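User: My collaborator sent over this chain with a note saying "see what the structure looks like." That's all I know about it. Can you take a look?
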Amino acid sequence: GRMIGPPVQVIQALYMDNPQGLADYIANPVKKRDDYPEMPPQNYLDAATRLAVAEYMLQVKN
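Assistant: Without extra context I'll predict from the sequence alone. Here is the result:
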């Protein structure tokens, strides 16, 4: 099986206008794809850090 999640471009397409939604998912993920492993919760990060990570992920270019 796969060891990492979907490509960043897929995440960007889902959350491009919703960094808070991505930050919420980072804290409390739910399994969305059968062919990818479930992401462990990153709720040990504080809310500001999760939002900063989400904003960074949404602006990364290849």
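A starting point for your reply to your collaborator: The helical segments are 8-15, 19-27, 47-59.
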